[in-house]
């Protein structure tokens, strides 16, 4: 039906806007393009991130604002906010850290929260996006000692509304198993929370392919999550109190061997503790490197003045 050949280099990412009238792409030539998918014309373009690694893009508002993730010239991971109607410069450009993994964005249109998960990272950061200054604000992050090979997201209609679950991620571990990660908003009330569960996009078509190629622009069909909500108690049953287990003590005068009880026999516990300390040291080194980079930037700015 249509072939778009405006890219001269490898395409890294493609993203549709909310009503399917525009297509945003990032490519190896470091350009961010806004394309009319019907005519194939480039409506706007600009240079994105200076780094040579992969950049990703996602639309974050009905006004066609976009969030891109990429790398700086110094290989610092960063995100930028763009306006498709004026791509002369980013609305906001912020450094995240000095990690090496590509950051993949997932945008929740209902809560206006963008989740960033990096390949090889053990954490998932999430930001609140808005179509005005400050454009994007850091909220918090999920941290884990185990790195992720990939992350997929469950559609909003599959989340546990009664538990105020606004997102559910499926994290692929290096050893091949999948971990389910739930993102919830803590609420004591058992009533339906309309502020965090507005009408969401229903996965049904709203127009035919022929009409779309003819230029028809239709709004997505929305589904009210309140229709399927049933109030239930969120109070978890109290667990029976158990007597804490004591660590084995070494025998008097013993050398601390396994026979004397000096060494723990649970190898899994030792491995978990070692991985936890290794991850903590890695995270502290990353934070230290980030602070050093910022100090260097401030120093150069002061010298320039």
What are the salient characteristics of this protein?
305 residues; four-stranded antiparallel sheet; alpha+beta; 2 helices; Methylamine Dehydrogenase, Chain H; 14% helix; single chain
What is the structure about, briefly put?
This protein is α+β, with helices and mostly antiparallel strands and 305 residues long.
Structural features, described:
The structure is a single chain. With 305 residues, the protein is of the alpha+beta class. The protein has one domain: YVTN repeat-like/Quinoprotein amine dehydrogenase (Methylamine Dehydrogenase, Chain H, 7 Propeller), CATH 2.130.10. The chain is built from two helices and 17 strands. It has a four-stranded antiparallel beta sheet with strand order 1-2-3-4, with no helix packed on it. A hairpin with a 5-residue loop joins strand 5 and strand 6. The protein is globular and about 65 Å long. About 8% of the residues have low confidence.
């Amino acid at each position: 039906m249509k072939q778009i050949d405006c890219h001269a280099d490898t395409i890294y990412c493609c993203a549709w806007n909310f009503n399917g009238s525009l297509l945003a792409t990032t490519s190896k030539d470091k350009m961010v393009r806004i394309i009319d998918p019907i005519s194939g014309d480039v409506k706007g373009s600009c240079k994105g991130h200076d780094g040579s690694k992969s950049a990703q893009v996602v639309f974050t508002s009905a006004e066609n604002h976009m969030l891109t993730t990429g790398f700086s010239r110094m290989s610092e991971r960063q995100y930028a906010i763009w306006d498709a109607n004026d791509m002369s410069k980013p609305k906001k450009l912020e450094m995240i850290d000095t990690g090496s993994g590509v950051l993949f964005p997932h945008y929740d249109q209902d809560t206006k929260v963008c989740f960033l998960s990096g390949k090889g990272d053990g954490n998932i950061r999430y930001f609140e996006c808005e179509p005005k200054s400050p454009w994007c604000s850091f909220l918090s992050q999920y941290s884990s000692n185990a790195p992720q090979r990939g992350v997929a997201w469950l559609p909003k209609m599959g989340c546990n509304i009664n538990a105020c679950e606004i997102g559910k991620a499926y994290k692929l571990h290096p050893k091949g198993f999948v971990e389910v990660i739930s993102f919830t908003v803590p609420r004591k009330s058992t009533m339906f929370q309309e502020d965090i569960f507005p009408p969401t996009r229903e996965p049904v078509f709203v127009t035919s392919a022929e009409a779309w190629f003819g230029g028809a622009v239709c709004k997505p069909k929305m589904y009210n999550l309140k229709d399927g909500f049933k109030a239930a108690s969120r109070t978890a049953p109290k667990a029976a109190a158990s007597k804490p287990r004591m660590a084995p003590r070494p025998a008097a005068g013993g050398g601390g061997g396994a026979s004397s009880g000096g060494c723990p026999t649970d190898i899994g516990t030792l491995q978990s503790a070692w991985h936890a300390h290794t991850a903590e040291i890695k995270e502290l080194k990353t934070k230290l490197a980030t602070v050093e980079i910022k100090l260097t930037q401030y120093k150069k700015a002061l010298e320039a003045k």
